[in-house]
Fold this sequence. Notes:
Blueprint: H1 2-33, E1 45-52, E2 58-65, E3 71-77
Antiparallel strand pairs: 1-2, 2-3
Amino acid sequence: MYTFIVMVILLLLGVLAYYLFLKEKSLKLEKVEKGICPECGRDSIEIRRAKSGGCSGTTNVIYYCTLCGYEEEFNIESSCGSGGCGI
């Protein structure tokens, strides 16, 4: 019985950690799309590489800060129905 309770608690903690990770990643993406670096807070973000998986897939975009060196990859959903196959 105790094993089951411990497993349920660990599962809930894992789900909570994943939710918080996705929330933080989303906040970073919002800043990066505005051109603001989430680390140093300056307007210095550039797209280093954008690689598309096709019209119905996701686009892998690597954003880079020219001042502090921050670099992160985001997978952004893209489709041709939204006005184009690019970012």
